[in-house]
Amino acid sequence: MSALSQSELPKTGIPGLIENWRFDLLSGFLVFLIALPLCLGISIASGFPPMAGIITAIVGGLVVSRLSGSYVTINGPAAGLIVVILDSVEDLGGGDKLAGYHYTLAAIVIASVLQILLGVFKAGKLSAFFPSSVVHGMLAAIGVIIMSKQIHTMLGVKPQAKNLLGVIGEIPHSFTVLNPLIALIGFLGLALLIGWTYIKNKQIKMVPAPLLVVLIGLALGQFYGIDAAHEYKIQEQVFTMGPNFLVSVPDNFFAGFSFPDFSKVGEVIFWVHVVTIWLVGSLESLLSATAVDKLDPFKRSANLNKDLFAVGVGNLIASAIGGLPMIAEIVRSSANINNGARTGWANFFHGLFLLIFVALFPGVIHEIPLAALAAMLVFTGFRLASPKEFAKTLSIGWDNLAVFLITIFGVIATDLLVGVIIGVFAELLIHLFRGLKFSNVFKLAYQVNQTDPDTYHLQVSGAAVFSNYIAIKSLMAEFPPQKTIFFDLSEASLIDHTVMEFIYHFVEDYNAAGGHASIVGLDELEGLSDHHLATRRKAV
Fold first, then answer.
1. CATH number of 439-538
2. Interval 392-402 mean pLDDT
3. Residue 226: CA atoms inside 13 Å, Cβ hemisphere, count?
4. Parallel, antiparallel, or unpaired for β 445-452 and 455-464?
């Protein structure tokens, strides 16, 4: 799309509500239908009460939408934070899930304050420090972990193992002892989610697949009488059925509120989880907000620092009353855009509809089978760690795949923060092996010349890698619009995938906004694969 004039863009604030309420109200309602089951599933998988995710989405809609620096993002709990929060609940609780929940709320409160400070001090650009391969590896590892934990719930089985590798190892056994009627609900839900991806009809696709999964689960749950404890036989084998296979929620919304317990604030393990929640939550939110910008039909760019500040405020409020941390959630945001949303009021309406529903119909939530929610999470986990992600990573280069795999195994073998650090060091070691000098690890040599009032020539010298390009990223963000920019890479000795990806996307976005940006000097470099975003180094 060519650049739109300011008068053609949707208004914001109250004028935007008056102008676009029909579009945003409809989209907010449709996103609410998607968000309700996902919020419940993410809460339960995170070791939090089911209402925690709904509290977060309500705060994300009603509060964060009014402060945010983005336009069409939906804020709420995300699958990518499940592992972080569950680890915190288990570590801080020491086997007591309720205590771990309250300690984790305290950790989220402090992480939220740090997140707010990141926004205040305009540190949104720090997300650039994490290599693309490490970020994708982290997400794939999260996908593996989510699947390995939720498959058991989908089968109606509770694993006995206390650690992740043991839970993964128990999957074959869970298939042999599955609860048939519970598993039927789970497999039907999973089959529907998979089948829905192949449907092309836009009218049919307007009906959210997660909503259908929940409706089928509700119908089967009523048919089988899951809410009443009883036994049934299949081929002389006895299986149990009862309310423990359903979502457990309080009778009213306010009864779902809980409060942080700061009594572990003096322990090192508490601060490890604070930092993990802070870094992973901030990174995921920034990456998601950036990705949503690329989907916006009006080609608007979010103010990432303002967005980070708003999400931090939302997390502070949500965690103070028992909620999960939130991010700018990309799946719900994509649905929001596809449904025709124009402004942040769609996010507001999605939160308002959630509040109305849980206030008026808490009994309906209690009838949802856990297996239906688990099916949605297994599907989400698979998308994060699908074979396509491995193939896509390999196509960029063996080095990218190596760091991707190292990060996955690092996260699974240790924890999320340690695994990411292992991935970052692996990437650095590969670059050092290729000739990156220690003096250039955090320092990039570049020069900017303005050859005439409308033309900029930016020349990169030496190595440009994920750890040293933050300065140039900040500079490029300040370039005036609709000028001519040349990125001269002829003097570069090494350009890694993360930097290549950033430059290409900048050129695409700048040109889409009416400017003229181009890359020169690529013929002086050779790629480590045929992919246009592969790492490149000086031709010998």
1. 3.30.750.24
2. 94
3. 27
4. antiparallel
